[in-house]
Structure formats: C-alpha cells, structure tokens
Task: inverse folding
C-alpha cells in the first residue's frame, strides 16, 4: 500500500464527493466554488489516476458534459484517500 498525496484542489474535490454516494458535477462545482475549468482538469486527473470514477464510466469527461455526470470515489482507494484528505 503506497501513500497517496493529493494537491489542495484534488483534496477539495475528493472531500466534496465524499465516500458514501456519488455526486453530480454541478453539485461538485457548487460545493467547491472553483472555476469550472479547474474542476474539470482536476477531475480528469483523478479519473486518470483511478481515484475517481464517472458514472457512466469514461476515460475523460468533457467540460460541457461534466455538470450532468455523476462521480464517485473508487472503492479500492477509499481508505487511502480518506487518510490523504484528512491528513492535510
């Protein structure tokens, strides 16, 4: 098990999504109060790393469709992400 290190933006988005239910991209935007471009780029980075999964699954999410896509934390990394988020 290796330690996961998250940037501030990544930790903010993972914290907003939470660990129990999926969250729509529009809700993430409202919750984080970040620029849509920053949220989109950060989500795509988290998806590429395997930490977050879009529903329905895709390798990358376009900025235009992001508000209507649901996102959830990958259960395989939930424990490590929880530690990474709350140790910040």
Result:
């Amino acid at each position: 098990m290796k330690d996961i290190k998250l940037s501030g933006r990544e930790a903010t988005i993972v914290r907003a999504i939470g660990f129990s239910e999926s969250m729509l991209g529009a809700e993430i935007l409202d919750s984080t109060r970040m620029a849509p471009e920053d949220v989109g780029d950060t989500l795509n980075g988290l998806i590429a790393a395997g930490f977050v999964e879009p529903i329905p699954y895709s390798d990358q999410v376009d900025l235009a469709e992001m508000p209507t896509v649901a996102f959830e934390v990958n259960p395989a990394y939930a424990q490590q992400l929880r530690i990474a988020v709350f140790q910040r």
User: Anything to note?
Assistant: The chain is about 45% helix and 10% strand.
